[in-house]
Design a protein that fits this description.
The complex is a heterodimer of chains A (about 290) and B (about 130). Chain A is α/β, with parallel strands linked by helices. In chain A, about 65% of the residues lie in helices and about 10% in strands. A five-stranded mixed sheet of chain B has the order 1-2-3-4-5, with helices on both faces. Classes of the chains: A alpha/beta (about 290), B alpha/beta (about 130).
Chain lengths: ~290, ~130
């Protein structure tokens, strides 16, 4: 790339030009009917102004072919923040990419007007074709993203279903090993599965094992309590097991009240308690073995 | 108006909710039950709600009130046969059915009620003995 090109492009974004360019650009963006509703007019003009400023700074570096160089860092960071915030607001990838593509449109019009190229049919045709190709390119990214999102959603569903088994441990004793974070959606599924299993098995005791729950906060505790009270309404009793030392401390520290709920440190202890509640006793033969 | 029958079985009363349990029926049941408990001097009530398919906050409260009033009249209430969907609804609505005993089936409920009554009469005798009366 020659120095000439660099300086010419720099001149396009010079101080005198950029004011007018910004006006045109913002106007073009606001006029776009397909723009998603979540983005306010003021945020469009502030981010456009910021982008133009950073962009013209970066252009001065004279590097137009590689955007992975240090002078482009600020521009990339600004665009990254913008894309992330628009994604959170629910904009599509096409809408977000249009932020940049609309500048191209404005810039090209200005160039054409200055050079008088606009009247030539070839110039017009190539411009229309560029726009068309841009649209197709945006379409491919959007479809790509959507299909990836659907994969993620399916996997989430699979994980949700896999992670909530109800196990029959003994006659009238059920166990639910909870693995992963307990949110309201999962609590709902756990509750439904557990209560149905209680009906199907005529269970008296349900052991909720939280060994696999990484942290217990007030939210998680509340979800646990809900499950426990729903189980009680069904006429069964709940034992919470698998409370690790740190978690016991957190529960006390957070001031979570879990009165009236039987808790045990391990699943083994919980099973023992459950068995004695349904009328079984477990005896060890270890003493006898030693004698032998 | 429809009324839910209340059957007497020795010291206990048996209520099975088989009809559409709407608000007026619920209130009528609450009244009838109170009267019957006093008339028969019943010590326990078994309420079977296995046919109940939906519940709202009002019915939840009525069930809670039945339990509370019965306790005032020295009578244990055991709620049996609650459907999973109803248990979930009641907890999601945040209705606290304190003082209510539950069991999975009517059979379990009867056993529980008998156990409760036994414990109660046992407690009474020990109390009487301690004070040297009777």
């Amino acid at each position: 790339m020659t120095n000439e090109t660099a300086s010419a492009s720099s001149a396009l974004f010079s101080k005198e030009n950029s004011k007018e360019l910004l006006d045109h650009w913002v106007k073009a963006q606001l006029a776009d009917q397909t723009r998603s509703e979540g983005i306010s007019d003021s945020s469009v003009s502030t981010s456009s102004a910021e982008f133009l400023k950073l962009f013209s700074e970066a252009l001065k570096g004279g590097n137009l072919s590689n955007i992975n160089t240090p002078e482009w860092e600020l521009v990339l960071r600004m665009l990254g923040d913008l894309s992330a915030s628009r994604a959170l607001q629910g904009s599509s990838s096409t809408d977000t990419a249009k932020f940049i593509f609309s500048l191209k449109h404005v810039l090209f019009e200005r160039l054409n007007a200055a050079s008088g190229l606009a009247s030539k049919p070839e110039a017009k045709a190539s411009w229309e074709l560029f726009l068309l190709l841009d649209k197709l390119g945006l379409y491919t990214t959007e479809v790509f993203q959507k299909s990836r999102e659907s994969v993620i959603r399916r996997q989430q569903k699979d994980i949700m279903e896999m992670s909530t088994p109800v196990i029959k441990l003994w006659d009238r004793v059920l166990a639910v090993p909870l693995i992963g974070t307990l949110d309201s959606a999962r609590t709902q599924i756990v509750m439904e599965n557990l209560l149905q299993a209680i009906v199907d098995n005529g269970a008296k005791i349900a052991i909720l094992d939280i060994t696999g729950v990484p942290t217990v906060d007030t939210q998680t505790a509340q979800h646990l309590m809900k499950t426990v009270s729903a189980t009680k309404l069904m006429g069964a009793e709940c034992i919470i097991s698998g409370i690790r030392p740190q978690i016991a401390q957190t529960i006390v520290h957070l001031g979570i009240e879990i009165n009236d709920i039987i808790t045990r440190a391990t699943m083994a202890d919980a099973l023992k308690e459950a068995l004695s509640k349904v009328g079984y006793t477990v005896e060890s033969d270890i003493a006898l073995e030693k004698v032998r | 108006m429809e009324r839910i029958p209340i059957l007497k079985l020795g010291e206990t009363l048996l209520v099975t909710i088989q009809v559409d349990f709407h608000d007026r029926v619920a209130l009528a049941l609450q009244e009838d039950l109170c009267e019957k408990i006093v008339n028969y001097s019943a010590k326990g009530v078994l309420v079977d709600i296995s046919a109940l398919e939906m519940v709202d906050s009002f019915m939840g409260r009525v069930l809670g009130n039945i339990a509370k009033t019965s306790r005032l009249l020295d009578c244990n209430v055991v709620l049996v046969g609650m459907q999973p969907a109803i248990a979930i609804t009641i907890t999601e609505l945040g209705i606290q059915l304190t003082g209510i005993n539950t069991a999975l089936t009517a059979e379990d409920g009867m056993l529980l009620l008998q156990k409760l009554l036994k414990a109660k009469s046992g407690a009474r005798t020990t109390h009487a003995n301690k004070n040297g009366r009777r």
